PQQ-dependent sugar dehydrogenase (Streptomyces carpinensis), 379 residues
Amino acid sequence: MTGVLAASLLLAAGCSSEGSPPGQGAAPSPTTARSSSAPRRPGEAAPPAKGSVRVLRTVAEGLNSPWGLAQLPGGGLLVSSRDKATITRIDEKTGKKTELGTVSGVAPEGEGGLLGIALSPRYASDHMIYAYFTSASDNRIVRMLYDARKPAGEQLGAPDTIFKGIPKGVIHNGGRIAFGPDGMLYAGTGESGERGLAQDKKSLGGKILRLTPEGAPAPGNPFPGSPVYTYGHRNVQGLAWDGKQRLFASEFGQDTWDELNAIKPGDNYGWPVVEGRSTDPKYHNPIAQWHTDEASPSGIAYAEGSIWMAGLRGQRLWRIPLKGTEASAPPQAFLTDTYGRLRTVASAGGGKLWLVTSNTDGRGSPKKGDDRILELEVR
């Protein structure tokens, strides 16, 4: 009851998290009264010549609170259920669902539960699935053996905790994990509603962490002996690398600006001192920003020279064309209000994306068939 009351007070105070209505925050400055990345209603801005999205098909439907997605090398998609704490395998050709099992130790509450998943970089030999989840005491990262030879529902081994102690809350649990081109494990965390944690380099909240596959601070991290890679984040839920191995991350704002950031190790991204762009050189500015009702971003992916970003409250898919670590043109929105809240987007290769909706998470308006995985063709 205390946690529910705390969440209610935070939301009443204007805390825009995964699509909750924003409060009466500070007004945007006159020079940025509207995001340069935001199209104006009614109607979307015409996409640039090389920007298009086509929905090829619905891969699977009837999913419960889907969150993380991982593509198996031999075919098949793994999807985590935030609230049921299960991992399910989807046959991407037929849509058949096979439940691997339930991840023990998960304590779903608010925005917490079973969140991001990723395959071991040595998956071909170790068959390990990594998962980020909320336990009764913290957010943590575990790994589990996946044995497809066992009966459905019994294919997950016991979770082996490799990293723990990430602050948990009813809101702002972060949750995205991904192995980078360097073979290290990256994790986006939230400040759990305690703003000060984001600027505290000794805290794991409001950070991007970089770990070895065994859960130790990765060699070459900017703060010796620390897993912290960047700090000053509010709630990171999207991680993706471009074709030149440069990392990008999406981040929830509060009342005014959501962000897409180019990640530079050791940099301070400003929260809670600043939200969105700032004139203070101490803080790394986002490469694009949006009003919170147009984005509330979660997952991101890189394809065809652009970052593609899923919007929860914004209920649209954003394309951010890149030139180096900058946006080369104003972002464009697609699928606006077509499939509801969008949680995860992942590269499917060959100019295609997997897109996961998020309408059964308690904040959406589920339609028949929700939630679903879509296959998109993009350019």
Observations:
- Residues 51-378 form a domain with the Neuraminidase fold (CATH 2.120.10.30).
- The chain has a mean pLDDT of 90.
- The first strand starts at residue 53 and ends at 60.
- The chain has one domain: 51-378.
